[in-house]
């Protein structure tokens, strides 16, 4: 039987000094369930037997191929020394990997990585690497020259071998190719190990029980955060925000570098957020701690906020939840309670109230970007549905209105009309200016909630 593979192997190792792994890797896509090191060793053993057989028959010289004497192949030099005691193992490094795949190098790098990972808490990891281009190019050239078509890449072998070693040492974590907690990159160009800790995402809900607190930190409009006379050198327009109450203790506990607050929509500064609260995701960059005690953090946040806000932390989540909050669920229905003041007194009869409720229930509102947010939002018309509209009369100049509407509807403008930019609106309907004097969000619906 003429063996194509054995011929290729022979040709390769007579010209290139290969460690077992680098030889085996050129045939890495043949057979699974065995390391390249084992593959390479098996091939060398086969050729060594061929050599010994012909030596016994014809007394040939020691083999030409230095790979059969490589330092990671002791069967090789021990067998050859039986016939040629002066022959020494070949100490040069592997022509392909420069000994980066030697057991010793892999063990050393694994130890260094474990040391670097010491200060991180993680339950999943991934190994990456950067090799000097000349090493990668050399392997490509060799594959071309010797027509090697079953090869695996050097990087993927390196990553897997280090990954296996790390996994053996780290019992609490698994390899995760999609969203690992940490990525360990072996930079063999600059001889360093880099750890990237992926963000931690925490899902919760908040209630805002006091008016006058913005959802997010709001930088001073004059100095944009540097601190100036206008903002009393705080850099902020408001001293407190829902975001800061929540993020400060969590950022500290997670030992992260920064945080981002993602709310499922937002209420106005002067509106309270009641009911079961509004969902949010807090994103912590480069955390070193991930197993946080949510109960303790909750009480710390709620204690600091002293009744102004209240937080319930639900669970760890992923970036996809942020996208969901920002897109799909921001359209989820919201329930509002608004106290409305009327410019001229109106003696509304029960039947008239019912007619207004009827007129504003289950209708589509065309809303041009409100004048008050025009400075930060594009001017465009959007349609949002009002699902239900219920009125409780306080007196001839004040009403309480309960509105359930699609997320993104501007409730204050639905009432005032915003100089005709919202159609239809309550002011035009009543022929007197109506304004919202108090606003509370009373429910943020889940997509599953029935309305
Ligand atoms: Zn090698
Ligand atoms: Zn300022």
Question: Can you describe this structure?
Answer:
The chain has 451 residues and is α+β, with helices and mostly antiparallel strands. It folds into 4 domains: 4-83, no CATH class; 103-197, VC0802-like (2-Layer Sandwich), CATH 3.30.2130; 200-329, Alpha-Beta Plaits (2-Layer Sandwich); 332-444, Alpha-Beta Plaits, CATH 3.30.70. The protein has 13 helices and 14 strands. The chain has helices at residues 4-15, 20-25, 36-58, 74-83, 103-117, 133-145, 154-169, 242-254, 294-305, 319-326, 350-360, 411-416, 426-430; strands spanning 124-130, 174-175, 182-187, 192-197, 200-208, 258-263, 271-285, 309-317, 334-342, 363-368, 381-395, 398-405, 422-423, 434-444. The strands form 2 sheets. Strands 5, 6, 7, 8, 9, 10, 11, 12, 13 and 14 form a 10-stranded mixed sheet that branches. Helix 8 (242-254) runs antiparallel to helix 9. It is elongated. The N and C termini lie far apart (77 Å). The chain binds zinc ion (2 copies). One zinc ion (ZN) binds at residues 220, 222-223, 227-228, 230-231, 235.
Content-based structural category: alpha+beta
User: Which hetero compounds are present in the coordinates?
Assistant: zinc ion
Q: What is the global morphology?
A: elongated
Q: What is Rg?
A: 35 Å
Main pleated sheet: 10 strands, mixed
Number of domains: 4
Q: What's the total number of strands? A: 14
Number of helices: 13
**Average pLDDT across residues?**
92
CATH architecture of the largest domain: 2-Layer Sandwich
State the helicity in percent bands: 25-40%
